[in-house]
Amino acid sequence: MLVTSVAARLAAAQDTTVVAHAPPPPLPVQVHGFLEVYYRAGDPTTRDGYRLRKADLKFSGDLSPELRWRVTFDAAKVLSLNTTTTEVGDTAALAAAAIDQRSRILQDAALTYQFNRDVNLDVGQQVVPLSLEGSIPTYEVETIERANFIVERSRAVGLGDVRDIGVSANGKAFNMLEYHGGLFNEAGDDQGSTDPNNQKTVIGRLVLHPPILPGLQFGGSGAFQGGPAKTHRERAGAEAQYKAPLFTFRAEAMGARDGLLRRFGWYGLGAVRPTKQLQLVARYDAWDRDLSDNDALANAFERSIVVGGSYALANAPARFAINVVRQEFPNTSTVPSGTFVLVAFEGAW
């Protein structure tokens, strides 16, 4: 009896040891991606040629029923430098150079805690809640390039589809009010780096979805960072959209202040889908990247009309798109107007 009892205890101890050292089960990882290659021809402000516009890779998974993680990379990004110059005698000389953090391939790196079906908390680097089109995934945008106030970043950071590090609350209330709000280091100025100043940026977006008319939504977004002129940031925008299976109508306006620089842009877009695979689109876009100046490409008022369409492949999540763009700079004679073509092939998985 004594021998049997001792043997049983030894066996139990051995079983416990085996269990304690067993490797944990592997975490399931979901992999998604998006690839966009286009050819640009006829643009008088830049060279013709191919461009690898996007090469997104997204990895995500669940750490628990309430906690989810995601890490996203854009492998198409090219590292760039921020430089400052100084005068040495009568010659400008390089004073300092540093990697532009916004050009790093890391996009999202965040944890999401789901409180319930309608409320979650995002912590980490993420797309800031600014503008409607800035929140739409690239594959779902009707045109090859986003609106000018988002995609054009020659004078300062874009006014949508930008990322920063912070904490945001996202959810829906009363089954009709969508909200996003958070506290970030900046408004997308220094993605991937520590805060360069003591100020923080408050960014929020509020959208109403009237239950009596599904597909209709309207609202606005904004951002504010106080402090001296060098760090002062303001954003204010309005949005409206009506989307149905056969068509989409969308309009947005966005104004911004970055120190002494003031900018304003707006667009109106219409898209029709006569079949599940074919989509036709047109957009009018006005963008003033510097309200105080108008003498060069870096500050000229720009007006563009985009007409085109896309065709989705029947047996794959991919599409072929063509956009014809008429681009004008009516308030300056130093920048040539012109018409150019974008031809793109996109695939998602």
Strand content: over 45%
Class by SSE composition: mainly beta
**Would you tell me which CATH topology applies?**
Porin
- Strand tally: 18
- Regions with pLDDT < 50 over 5+ consecutive residues? 1-8, 10-18, 91-95
Shape: globular
Order of helices and strands: HEEEEEEEHEEEEEEEEEEE
Rounded to the nearest angstrom, the distance between the terminal CA atoms is 64 Å
Tell me what the structure shows.
- With 349 residues, this protein is mainly beta.
- The chain is built from two helices and 18 strands.
- It has a single domain, classed as Porin (Beta Barrel), CATH 2.40.160.10.
- A hairpin with a 3-residue loop joins β8 and β9 (177-184).
- The protein is globular.
- The relative contact order is 0.13.
Q: Summary?
A:
This protein has 349 residues and is mainly β. The protein has helices spanning 2-20, 148-151, and strands at residues 30-41, 49-62, 67-74, 81-88, 91-99, 106-114, 119-127, 163-173, 177-184, 201-208, 216-225, 233-244, 247-258, 261-272, 278-288, 301-312, 318-328, 338-348.
